[in-house]
Amino acid sequence: MDKQDCKYGASCYQKNPAHKEKYRHPTKETSPTKEPEPETSSKRRSDSPVDDPTADILEDIKRCKRPATPEKDDGNREEAEQGSEYYGITRQRYTLPEVPMDVGMMSDIYDPQIEFSKKEEYKELCADPVEFIRHKFLVAMPACFNSLWEFCTGKSQDKPGEVFEKLGLRLVGPFDVLAKKFTDAKMHEPGDYLRHWRFYYDPPEFQTVLVKKGSGVHYGYWRDQPEDASGLVALNDVNKGCEIKMIGENIFDAVIHFLEHEVATTPFNKAQIATTKKSLEEFAKQRDIPLKSNEKIKARGKNVVCKTFHKAGIVVPFDRKQELGYRELLESDASLKKILARFDKIDNAADKIEFTAAMTELQPIVTGAFIAVDECDFGTALELATDLFCHGTANLHDVMKPLFITAYSQLKRPQFIAIIKSHLEDRRKGIDLDLLTK
């Protein structure tokens, strides 16, 4: 039986056996000279998917790759010139919205309004000392903090913050808020407030509130957790190093400790020292504030998992039966100090080879601390980070920062993350650390 010639000849794309059985597909040599019927665009789309130039576009559309639709343009003057055919697809023309030439000038209008809003918010904070301290210093103050301010106000209505200045003791930090020193001060970046009276070796757990004038001796509240309001106070002399000593359970213990151990006694102030101490003791007794008690310090000592270089130790959740929450570092304190001593005279930017060589000894300890974190021993990373911080070498900041962040994150102490990051960004030596003088 004679077959009809397929109109597509040898170029026919059909693979169907029934089609091949019905139609003949001559080769180019034997194909008829009759011109094939021209293909319409509709036939190309429906009958020839292999050669369809819009196939890729349609596939992209199916995959949601098309760009966002810009603003519709119903009266484009260029439409007649450029036409509306796009790869065989009839479409509506669009145009992007025009950007005003003066858009850059909008900041001239809105920036003053934003600045005004910031100033108004700052004024509201200054009017509420509790909220200001919580907002700027990220902590809440113990009850004894306000009690000492009440004592000072009773001694001097005009300048309560200067009651102890003649004896060489200055109230700083959050006390500056109660003294309204921030009211007329210029606004600073958030990190500046966290660095206000933060000495070189003050970890995030330590907040300075009293300083001995002209020295590195300073007293502060110690918090194992940001929300801790136990009132424990500690002492550090930055000129002697990182060691921190727990000295009492409230701020009155700190002032009395200063009067007994740190004040410069002369024949001219001896009577004033005695009078001030007696007044403090009587005020504390009237308000049932225990002095020189060490019950809270003993209770904390039972929860300390390791001493660290600053000797105040760290407190983290620790299950002693299962030994979960803390494990010792891979090296002893003595060995770790020897390893860290190699970094003392190295500039990690200029002396990359020496720094890398020193890190070969330290890296296994760091890695071990992170492995401990993976196994829920979060205290190990905090111990190592604190030891690096106490060692004091600035070129180890980038090493200790991830340890601090990881440990505080797992221990749910985010305020301490903000404090340590701000401190390491501008870790200043010396004793002139008053933000209000900058």
Word description of this protein:
The chain is an alpha+beta fold. The chain has 2 domains: 113-298, no CATH class; 304-425, no CATH class. Helix content is 43%, strand content 9%. The protein contains 17 helices and 11 strands. Strands 5-6-7-8-9 form a 5-stranded antiparallel beta sheet, covered by helices on one side. The protein has a two-stranded parallel ribbon with strand order 1-2. It is elongated, with a radius of gyration of 38 Å. The model is unreliable at 29-50, 60-74 and 76-91 (pLDDT under 50). GO terms for molecular function: histone binding; poly-ADP-D-ribose binding. InterPro entries: APLF_PBZ (IPR019406), HPF1 (IPR019361). Residues 49-58 have a biased composition (Acidic residues).
Characteristics:
alpha+beta, 5-stranded antiparallel sheet, two-stranded parallel sheet, 17 helices, APLF_PBZ, chromosome, nucleus, PBZ-type domain-containing protein, poly-ADP-D-ribose binding
